[in-house]
Amino acid sequence: MSTKKVKILSIDGGGIRGILPGTILNYIETELQRRTNNPNTRLADHFDLIAGTSTGGILTCTYLIVDENGQTKYSAADALNIYLERGGDIFNLPFSRKLWSLFGIRRPKYSVDSLESALHDYFGESMTADLKRPCIITSYDIRDRKAIFFNKVDGINNPVRNYKVRDVARATSAAPTYFKPAKIKSAIDSPLVLVDGGVFANNPALCAYAEARTLDFAKQDTPSEIAFPSAEDMFLLSLGTGTEQQPYYYDSAKNWGMLKWIQPIIDIMMSGNSETVDYQLKQMFKAVKHEDCYHRIQPSLHNAKSQMDDVSPQNLKALHEAGLVYISNNEEKISKIIDKILES
């Protein structure tokens, strides 16, 4: 019996906490290079489908963007450096902006200028149809009130669904209260008004599973040739952006009104969604007796702050170190995951 699988990578949302999955995936890519004796191999060479929400959507775009020769443009280290080198600019909050926005209460907390500049620098004029592999990147249409799923296959088959990659990255990461909504147009000018996909799918792994079920990978440019796979035909690796450490206590919460609940409810909804999807997928893979083909990596934040926009030099370093600590403490687990990725 063949062990060949459709291999899926999924990355949660979480703002600057994208450093955590970025660090772990950089290690995995480095190990893939070492084991294959190929310093040029990339994550996109080993996965058939990559999914992302918000910060995970930006990572997905970075792993899948290609150069003028159709080769993967960026390494996992390059993707990590977006956060380490540009995160401070993206979440820059001058005192004048604090006053003008009333700390995000009256207006979006941050300007989109630095974010859009970084996305333009990395993704240029590339379109979703040009991405290396099939993908699923989440966003939400606040005008027509519906979930939006960007993917390469739709971009190829329908110009109405072919968008600039930088616009997709902007839309999936348009976190309410942090950034204003994204207004984007497709290749034939079909406008959408979008916010962060984390409002409904902070963990996009189940979306990735559903997308994979619809694809004939024999007709896609991917390592696998399996048509319309089910759970027993898949290997799914899902990465979170760090466990939420902030507890909320009854004596305080019982007196909260709308303003007090805003930040806690965002935290609870994001982590609750991620945990629910993890439970659902565990049960699905258990039902087909393939528990070893679903892996969830959710590292501890350790000394890092849980805020999605804390870009102090100390917190950037702490997030990176938290990723490295997870790698050090879970070498055997990660090694088995890499074994699965390399199975043919």
UniProtKB/TrEMBL annotation:
The keyword Aminoacyl-tRNA synthetase does not apply. Signal peptide: none annotated. Gene3D superfamilies: Cytosolic phospholipase A2 catalytic domain (3.40.1090.10). Residues 9-209 form the PNPLA domain. GO terms for biological process: lipid catabolic process. Keywords: Hydrolase, Lipid degradation, Lipid metabolism. A motif (GXGXXG) lies at residues 13-18. A motif (GXSXG) lies at residues 52-56. The active site is at S54, D196. It comes from the Bacteria. A motif (DGA/G) lies at residues 196-198. One of its GO terms (molecular function) is monoacylglycerol lipase activity. The keyword Transmembrane does not apply. Belongs to the patatin family. This is PNPLA domain-containing protein. The lineage of its organism: Bacteria, Pseudomonadati, Bacteroidota, Cytophagia, Cytophagales.
